[in-house]
Amino acid sequence: MITRRNVLTVSAAAAAFSAAHLVPRALAQPIARTVHILMGFTPGLQDALARLVAGQMSGYAQTIVVESRPGAGGRIAVEAVKSADADGAVMLFAPLGFMMFFPHVYKTLRYQPRDFTPVSTVASTPTLLTVGPKVPADVKTLADFVAWCRANPKLATFGTPGAGTTLHFLGTMLGRSAGFDFLHVPYQGNGAIQDLVKGVIAAAVMPIGSALGLVQSGDLRALATTGPRRCPFVPAVPTVREAGYPSLEDLTWFAFFVPAKTPASIVDKLNAAIQAALRTDEVRAGMAKLAVEPDAIAMGDFARLIASESDRWKAIVQATGFVPTD
Length: 326
Hints:
The protein is of the alpha/beta class and 326 residues long.
């Protein structure tokens, strides 16, 4: 079984493989029709990332349309791809959570991971724990923050983009691991960051890109990142493992999926086009601006990663006592 620490090694090997131009380029002629990439959220990081990669995938299709189908926590887009013809003309671009996390937080899903073929991850990003003006300025480390939360239980609040998300559970796990009540305040979009800056909440658990500019300006303080190594965008910020909470280690991966019965020849062609896109200077520079890192995991390891992460998150959700919703 692939482990989380293995992933970094696998990704590094894949990157070296690509750099050596050993990943096959898109073969033959592009698909002679319009291809649709569906996403489950309104424009934001995911949309920008999908458009960035799609813009360099001309070897796969003559025309590629990135289409947002928000609703039901992103599940509408997933269901649409499940029902699409398995001919490579419709694909899903989504965080891995849609496959390895959603089955544990929703009572009913109209899809299962087996309904899709994972093609390739393209990027990953850690989560960032930040605090704002509600927390005293002398709180500079995660240990300081835990001590402050224990001493001020009524003020120990954290915001995320929504209840039942991986970010929600990461905050909950911190409170449970450190022995204090960490009250979750769900928001939509970047609302948590806005209230964090205003001092409405004490902390936020968000994708790094959501708060990076405010951390760099000094308006927010970053206490830890959840990646397996320090993030190059905030190299001075320790990881949760360094801070003494290795169970909080986590990455958000973004990836392409196609319907399960898509022929292997098409999957291979799509994978080759994605790998070629990830090698371009345009994509690498664009990802740096979005505060994500290129992260292509080989197809076989990708499938094992989903299974391993699904088991891990199932245990986490059950341990917190969270009740799945519709």
